């Protein structure tokens, strides 16, 4: 069972009655499983005829889910030059990096606010003190 399908072959199977998905460059016929999917049919239909690797891995499916996949195997994906790139490689680093980056950005922003706020408060305190001294003399 090593049928090769191109990306455009797969994209023709995107309806509920005829649904192929690509996961890790393997092509699966999910038609019989759509109604049974614990995550709902909607998410499967969303990735019908497309590369579902990222969506599938994002959820952290169990080994049991992977066994079901084995039973749905149709063949392997043969990528052409103009086809979308595999989503597998970029998936974990880009995700964790972006969230870490956001957290660091927020931390630096908070520091800046505290520093600027502190400087302003100190300036205002000095200004008021000077003003008060002036008033006492008059
Ligand atoms: C043909 C491919 C797929 C198979 C065989 C499959 C199978 C399963 C199975 C067996 C479960 C039960 C929990 C587990 O064992 O991990 C599950 C849950 C789930 N699946 Fe999939 N899945 C597929 C594709 C997808 C895709 C593409 C998405 C897109 C986001 C998705 C989203 C979910 C979600 C959100 C749950 C959790 C449901 C819950 O716990 O309430 N699945 N899937």
TrEMBL record:
Sequence intervals crossing the membrane: 103-125
SMART domains: Cyt-b5
GO molecular function: heme binding; metal ion binding
UniProt subcellular location: Endoplasmic reticulum membrane; Microsome membrane
Membrane topology: Single-pass membrane protein
GO terms under cellular component: endoplasmic reticulum membrane
Ranges of Polar residues composition bias in the record: 87-100
Cytochrome b5 heme-binding domain boundaries: 2-78
Region of interest called Disordered, as start-end residue ranges on this chain: 76-100
Matching InterPro entries: Cyt_B5-like_heme/steroid-bd (IPR001199), Cyt_B5-like_heme/steroid_sf (IPR036400), Cyt_B5_heme-BS (IPR018506), Cytochrome_b5 (IPR050668)
Main location group: endoplasmic reticulum
Keyword Electron transport: yes
Keywords annotated in UniProt: Electron transport, Endoplasmic reticulum, Heme, Iron, Membrane, Metal-binding, Microsome, Transmembrane, Transmembrane helix, Transport
One GO BP: sterol biosynthetic process
PANTHER family: CYTOCHROME B5
Similarity comment: Belongs to the cytochrome b5 family.
Name of the molecule in the record: Cytochrome b5
